[in-house]
Amino acid sequence: MKIFLSRFLSTEIDENIKRLFSEAKFANENGCAFAVFPELFLTGYKGFVEPSKARKIFKEISIKHSETIFVFGTISEEKRNRATVWSKGKEILSYDKVHLFKPNNEHKIWQKGDTYKAVKTKYCKLGVVVCNDLRFPESARTLRMKEKIELLVVPAFWPLRRNEIFRDLLRARAIENAIYVAGCCISHLERKEEKFYGALNYVFDPLGNQIETNDDRIYDIEIPFKKKILVDPLKE
To answer: Which CATH superfamily is domain 2-220 in?
Structure first.
């Protein structure tokens, strides 16, 4: 199957919404099973979009491109940093970031979530964690051992200057849990009140091999994974 990871350039809200529609269309037209957008991709930390407006857009896109499952990064809603997953116009998963990043004062902006969540899709069992959650092995481990996920997606707002840490943590979560892990980070945020350069996007297979991409957006993955797993946590 194909998975689309947005290299999202975030500017003003209206432009971001236009870009969202365009990228969602591109993912669907290219036969992607999943389309993933980064953490806070519509607003950054300092912008704002009414959650009901964002949800209306997410629903519209999901209905229009019904064969693609969308992970719409995160929005700020009910004092939570919230990721949502949509299929055929319905929200099938809502996840609140558990491990808030204190150096960015996230604990003063949001309340932390308290549950790791997964959802069964027609393509595979999907788990979602957000950015700083990646630092904590128990996040992915819980989803693998209890929910039996096969693919973990990580919407992120991770700085380019610490790109190697983002990459290495994604690879580690893939190896130790024998799952595909996809990290989707904001590419660049350019607004008067906020500027940010994000880390790169990556997909790793259950053996920790980096999946290559021909266009820096679409990656081919194989679920179920057919190669031999050296140490399968579900069996050993």
So the answer is: Carbon-nitrogen hydrolase (3.60.110.10)
**Measured between alpha carbons, how far is 21 from 15 in angstroms, rounded to an integer?**
10
Angle formed at CA 60 by CA 58 and CA 66, multiple of 5 degrees: 95
Q: What's the average model confidence in pLDDT over 155-159? A: 98
Task: Return the DSSP state at 229.
Answer: P
pLDDT bracket for residue 236 (50, 70, 90) = confident
3-class secondary structure, 94 = strand
pLDDT tens for 56-84 read: 999 999 999 999 999 999 999 999 999 99
CA 17 – CA 10 distance, rounded (Å): 10
Under a CB-based contact definition with an 8 Å cutoff, are residues 22 and 35 in contact?
Answer: no
Q: How many CA atoms lie within 13 A of 202 on its CB side?
A: 23
Mean pLDDT, range 44-59, rounded to an integer:
97
CA distances from 26 to 13, 23, 88, 141, 185 (A): 20, 5, 17, 33, 18
Distance from C-alpha of 83 to C-alpha of 72, rounded to nearest angstrom: 6
Confidence of residue 192 (pLDDT cuts 50, 70, 90): confident
The answer to whether 236 and 14 are in contact (CB under 8 A) is no
Indicate if the pLDDT at residue 2 is higher than 90.
yes
CA dist 48 and 157 (Å) reads: 16
Strands 90-96 and 80-87: antiparallel
66 contacts: CB under 8 Å, gap ≥ 6: 87, 88, 89
